[in-house]
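Tokens as discussed.
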């Protein structure tokens, strides 16, 4: 196989195809063998992490394929009398839209491990930023739950650090409205992680989500909003009956409403209300004569 075909796989996919993601078998198909196979004999990948495909983007890719062909081959594995897609679903769908009968493919043997299929599909989409944050998180979760991998293992397989995987998985704790907002691109994963602190209080979560969207808050402003919403309400000072009595006595003495407030240090204020300049002059006269 010539060097150009090997390079066409892309650095990340080629590495996955050549290393320790498969169960070794003496009769396995070489990882970099290319074939052209009929598109109507390729079944969808049951482990595809991507669930949503943009129709306009597929049409645009189909137009490009009509003009230039499929530049990067898809990845498939043998399955009885046909093939099962491992990576490249957008290219396969767009090729069908373009009316292409055959597509270039890297063909793997039927021994390709199930977790390897999921990792390949995840990596391909992540390298092209094709997955929204929720789809990526769901893919990571499948690797953890279905294949018993630790977050460290997932991070190693997809070439990310553990914190990236952990932060992605946190998004799956979002209420449905939060997930929908991330999927739609209305808020970012950063906004969503800040909102997780409100996840146990649906009313406040929805209130904050509405404010973020209406005011177009950035992530830092969102974090500040969440802190304010989580802060305990300030305690209102209890009315002091003694101060109320003194206030009423002063009100009778000076002929205008008097309010008395206190501070924690023992000090306070006396506020006298007046309604006009004449009332103020009369109040001053009475205070001087007191």
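Sequence:
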């Amino acid at each position: 196989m010539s060097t150009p075909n090997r390079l066409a796989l892309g650095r990340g996919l080629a590495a996955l195809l050549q290393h320790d993601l498969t169960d070794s078998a003496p009769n396995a198909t070489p990882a970099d063998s290319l074939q052209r196979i009929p598109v109507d004999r390729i079944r969808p990948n049951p482990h595809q992490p991507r669930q949503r495909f943009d129709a306009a983007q597929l049409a645009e890719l189909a137009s490009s394929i009509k003009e230039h062909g499929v530049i990067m081959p898809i990845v498939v594995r043998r399955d009885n009398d046909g093939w099962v897609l491992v990576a490249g679903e957008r290219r396969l769908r767009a090729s069908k839209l373009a009316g292409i009968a055959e597509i270039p493919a890297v063909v793997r043997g039927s021994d390709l491990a199930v977790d390897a299929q999921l990792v390949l599909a995840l990596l391909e989409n992540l390298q092209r930023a094709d997955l929204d944050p929720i789809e990526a998180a769901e893919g990571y979760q499948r690797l953890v739950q279905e294949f018993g991998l630790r977050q460290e293992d997932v991070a190693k397989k997809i070439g990310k650090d553990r914190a990236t995987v952990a932060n992605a998985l946190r998004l799956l704790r979002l209420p449905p409205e939060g997930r929908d907002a991330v999927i739609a691109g209305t808020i970012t994963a950063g906004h969503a992680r800040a909102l997780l602190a409100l996840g146990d209080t649906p009313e406040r979560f929805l209130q904050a989500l509405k404010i973020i969207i209406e005011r177009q808050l950035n992530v830092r402003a969102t974090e500040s909003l969440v802190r304010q919403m989580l802060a305990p309400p300030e305690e209102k000072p209890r009315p002091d009956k003694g101060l109320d009595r003194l206030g009423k006595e002063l009100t009778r003495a000076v002929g205008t409403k008097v309010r008395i407030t206190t501070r924690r240090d023992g000090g306070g204020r006396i506020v006298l209300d007046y309604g006009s300049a004449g009332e103020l002059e009369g109040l001053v006269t009475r205070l001087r004569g007191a």
